[in-house]
């Protein structure tokens, strides 16, 4: 019989073989053993309401029976082929039918990989090298994406700040950085540098900061004026804010988008999508060797991931799913806002009903520099209190799933009350 280990024992083992004892994603002291519906259990058997859900992919919850059935149906037929497969083609058809900017897609394995290829596609199509991104915008782990993602020092725009060691100095020369939600700043940069900028890449909902009214439409107009391609990074928002993603939700269509998380149904899968004209750069026979964008990946379009994603999208297409998701998220927002408001604790609910969190601040949140707590210690106290009360969430966002039940709402209410009590005790 295999010996049962505690979370602490697993973490001790991890420390020997994993840098910082973890995968680099989350608190390494959390070692999850299993998930079912809206709940997860750690290796000590402790149960949590899961508001992390794999960092967003599991909109239907853990082990959704129809998704599981689709996976089990594909499993004995083959794990991966490298060649085309029917499930991958069907999923591509479903994505292209749903997402406004997508006439064709190209599969990759991760969201960061998709963002990297989207930028490369923009460069191939325009013949330009520079890109414009927004301070605080997350676009994966490539060298360009790691410029001004989470800068610890504020510098004058458009100067980028590298967030990681190992990034060549020259990368910063090809990246311009603007403040999110500031059309005037973008207009100034495009007026000055538009002839050498290949693309503007943006999270339509930047982390959890919503676009100001007219901001995305303004980007669309400015990019059109300067012949710059607009990329929506929809790794998070794709199929989450609406079935057609942020493009449908906000009513603005980019030239290129990236998708991930939900489209793989819990497996590693992502994609780049655009018009057939732009996607022709992946077809050497159409554009020639000079303009061809080389791309391949061992697990791209994996049939298990495609089967899980295809069934997930089928469930999400059913009437009322997004209305229910928004209702669940709105109730979760209200529970927190009401309890904090009653206690006189300054806060802002930031985001959309399906993806949001709390900032402990008095003023509005408009960009990276204002997406901060007036009292950072309150955030730490709040986060720890919610965890102790049975909520598993990332430190800076809540992912809403359709698996959340009335029982989960009652647990959330109790956890929030415990969190407020902890904040009041800390302030006393």
Query: What is the tally of helical segments?
Result: 13
Strands of the largest sheet, in order across it? 4-10-9-8-7-5-6
Helix content: 25-40%
Q: Tell me the structural class.
A: alpha/beta
Low-confidence stretches: none
Q: Helix and strand succession? A: HEEEHHEHEEHEHEHEEHHHHEEHEEH
Please provide the count of β strands. 14
How would you describe the overall organization of this protein?
By secondary structure, the protein is α/β, with parallel strands linked by helices. The protein has 13 helices and 14 strands. The protein has helices at residues 7-17, 65-74, 86-98, 111-126, 183-193, 215-226, 245-250, 276-279, 284-287, 303-316, 321-342, 376-388, 406-427; strands at residues 32-36, 39-42, 47-50, 104-108, 130-134, 175-178, 197-202, 229-234, 256-259, 270-274, 348-352, 355-359, 391-392, 398-399. Helix 3 packs parallel to helix 10, helix 5 (183-193) runs parallel beside helix 6 and helix 12 packs across helix 13. It is globular. The N and C termini lie far apart (51 Å).
Main attributes of the structure:
37% helix, 13 helices, alpha/beta, 428 residues
In short:
This protein is α/β, with parallel strands linked by helices. Helix content is 37%, strand content 14%.
List the helices and strands and how they pair.
Layout lengths: L6 H11 L14 E5 L2 E4 L4 E4 L14 H10 L11 H13 L5 E5 L2 H16 L3 E5 L40 E4 L4 H11 L3 E6 L12 H12 L2 E6 L10 H6 L5 E4 L10 E5 L1 H4 L4 H4 L15 H14 L4 H22 L5 E5 L2 E5 L16 H13 L2 E2 L5 E2 L6 H22 L1
Parallel strand pairs: 3-13, 5-6, 5-7, 7-8, 8-9
Antiparallel strand pairs: 1-2, 2-3, 4-10, 9-10, 11-12, 12-14
Helix pairs in contact: 2-10, 3-10, 5-6, 11-13, 12-13
